[in-house]
Every structure is written in C-alpha cells, then in structure tokens.
Amino acid sequence: MIRRRIAEHPVAADVVLALTAAAVAFISGTAKIDTWVVVLPAPWPWYALWAVSYASLLLRRRAPVVVTAVALVCLVAQNALDTVSLPWALLIGLYSVAVRRGARWAWVCSAAVVGSLALAGTVVPNVESPLVAGFGIVVVVLVGLNVRSRRQYLAALIDRAAQLERDRDQEARLAAGAERARIARELHDVVAHGMSVMISLSDGADAVAEVDPARSRDAVRQIGVVGREALADMRRLLGVLHDGDDDAALAPQPGLDGLDDLVETYRSAGLPVSLTRVGELPAAPALQVVLYRTVQEGLTNALRYAERPARVAVVLQGADGRGRVAVEIVDDGAGTVPAASVGTERGLVGLRERAALYGGSLEAGPRAELGGRGWRLRLVLQGHGDADQTPEEAS
Q: Do 194 and 338 lie in a common domain?
C-alpha cells in the first residue's frame, strides 16, 4: 500500500523525505540543551548550506549525481564553519544514484565522495573520517542497488505478463481466423454440392414434367433429400459458432465410405459419373476428408461447367512406392474455353490449402490429350503426412 502511494505521488514523497531528513539534520546537528534551554549556536551561513543541501533532494529522481555533488560540497562547507553536520543528504543522494543510475555510477560516485572527504580532511579538521564514511556509503549503495534490482525484476515480470497476454490474444485471433477459414471451406463444399445438384435436378424435373411425370416426381423427391442433407451439414458447421450453454451437435466428417452415395447424387442429377478405386486407400480420417472434398469439388465443377460430357471419371489411387495418394476427376465435356465462374472461386483455393497440410499439390486445367477439351482435377497427397490429425484440424 505504501509503495503504491509513493509511486502514485513521487513529488509529494520527495517533499516529505526532504523535510524529514532536514528536520533530523537540523535538530541533531545544531541544537544542544544547556540547562533545559535549547540554543542554536551555528552561524547563519550554516543554515543557508543546510537549506540548499536538503532542498536539492527534490531533484534526486531527475539528477541524483548533481544532488550528491551539492550535498558533498555543502557538508564540507558546514564542517569548515567548525560546526557539526550529519551527512543525511549525501547518503540519500548516493542511494538515489544507485537506484536511478545503476552500479557503475553508484560506485564511481562513492569513490569520488570518499576521495573528496579524504582530501578535504587535510584542510578541514572536522570532516568525517573517510573510513567511517566509506562504511556507511557502502551500506547505502548496496541497499540502493538491491532496490534497483527488485524494481527491474518486477518490471520484467510485468512486461512478461503483458507479452504473454498479447501473445494469447494474437493466438486467439489466429485460431479464430483459422476456424473461420475452415468453416468457409466446409460451407463452400456443402453449399456448392447441394445447390448444384438441386439446380440440375430441378431443371431435369421441369424438362420431363409433361412427358414423364413419374421421373419428374422422383427428381423432386431427390431435391428434398439433397436439400435436407445440405441443411443438416450447414447446421452442424454453424453450430460450432453458437455461444450458448448447449453443446453444438457433432457428426463425423465424411470419408471414403460415403463416396458411393455422393456419386449417386450426381448421377441422379444427370452426370455420367464412374468411380474407380485402385490400391489400398488411406485409413486416416483426415486424409479421407481431403479426398472426399476433392471428389465433391471436382464433380460439382463438372456439373456446373462441363458441356454435354459423355463420361466423368473419378479415380482414387492408393499409396504408391513413395507413400503418395492421388485422386483424379476428369470429364470430356465439349468446348476448349473454360466457362465463366459462377461461384466464389474459393473451391480450388480451399483444396490447395488442404493439400498444403500434407505437402501435396493440386493441378486443375483443360485436358491436353483431348486438344484442350474437357477438364482434369488432380490432387496428390503425402499419405504418410499428419495422419494423426483430426478431420477438423485437416479442414
């Protein structure tokens, strides 16, 4: 409590210190009792030096070396007047040098004071012995250096705590940004897949409504199925943003077991998809999520942009000799100029971010073997990557 009040009011603290030290020095240095009567035998210059010496303590925080020099000169001058004077101002000045300027300044000033006292003692007999003064000076300087070290330690702790708080806030912002990016990627996959299939089914249902009502009704029912699945996925993803007490509903991320159902939804939308699995596919859930989302993105783009494709092939290649896993989605749609994008163009960006987690690569472009017709999407992953990651971390 006292330290905090002194720190909050340094000027007032210096005034109280200067007045207290001046009073003690005045009473103990000049007054004497003679038959119960207090007399002041010192000449008037002594009082002027006393006032200057202790008034200089008001500057001890800003100029402690100057205060020490003034106190030393006043002390020697008072002793030259053949009167008693106690070195409180000088000791307080050296203490301030130790606290404010550090060990080097403190010991240099202490040596200068002791040397000055020894030199003045050859001329002024009343000057205190350098040995006696040196002992008191060493004690005062050591106390001042200890206080300085403690203050520096506390300042370092406070700075460290502030740095940790800043790091914590920065990590929270980065984590929030990463989570937003993950949710954005997942929402893109869910919305792009669901809406693309629903639009194609709707167009197909409308086209055959009059000539084949039964087929049109099947397409409409399939729209409901796809819509409900997409809505459930969106609720699951957005549930993590809920701040209430109830836990968000959790569901496993899609894996390779769900590819057949995924492909079937695109077939029902009129896309001639074939699915081929080659070799041993990865069992790590995180890798399966990346492969699933890649197939979903490739088929969504084929449904959107491929012109009258005769075949859309999805090929999953298990780990090769170097542990790489690949997935390729190709179509033979007409046209050599890529269609204008109708989406946010976040799909391929998200796939590249997913591939980067495993040191993989993503290729997307027209098929050179067909003269630029059709489109190829190929993702290669390092199958031995961070297989222990959770699907959420990989997303």
A: yes
- Domain end among 97, 128, 159: 128
Residue 154 lies in a domain: no
Alpha-carbon Rg for the chain, nearest whole angstrom, is 43
324-331 and 38-39 as β-strands: parallel, antiparallel, unpaired?
unpaired
Q: In this predicted model, what pLDDT tens digit does every residue of 166-218 receive, in sequence order? A: 888 888 778 777 767 766 667 766 666 677 777 777 877 777 777 888 877 88
Pseudo-torsion of CA 236, 241, 246, 247, nearest 10°?
50
8 A C-beta contact, residue 324 and residue 341:
no
pLDDT at 276: 92
Report the distance separating Cα 290 and Cα 293, nearest Å. Answer: 5
Instruction: Round to whole Å and give the CA distance between 287 and 308.
Output: 32
| In a domain? residue 90 | yes
175 and 116 inside one domain: no
Find the domain containing 118 and state its range. Answer: 2-128
Q: Does 185 reside within a domain?
A: yes
Give the residue among 318, 320, 274, 278 at the shortest CA–CA distance from 295.
Answer: 274
Long-range interactions of 202-207: CB distance < 8 A, separation 24+? 204/269, 204/270
Element at 327 (helix H, strand E): strand 324-331
- Cα dihedral 367/369/373/376 (nearest 10): -20
Q: How many domains does the chain have?
A: 2
CATH, residue 339: 3.30.565.10
68 plus 202 within the same structural domain: no
Half-sphere exposure of 378 (CA within 13 A, CB side): 11
- Output the pTM of the full model: 0.46
Q: Are residues 185 and 110 in the same domain?
A: no
Residue 290 lies in a domain: yes
Instruction: Using alpha carbons, select from 332, 271, 326 the residue that is nearest to residue 299.
Output: 271
167: amino acid identity, one letter? D
Q: Which residue from 306, 332, 349, 315 is spatially nearest to 196, judged by alpha carbons?
A: 306
Distance of CA 9 to the CA centre of its chain: 35
Res. 238: pLDDT tops 50: yes
Which helix (DSSP H) or strand (DSSP E) does residue 363 occupy? strand 361-366
Residues 72, 73, 78, 82: what is their CA dihedral angle, to the nearest 10 degrees? 100
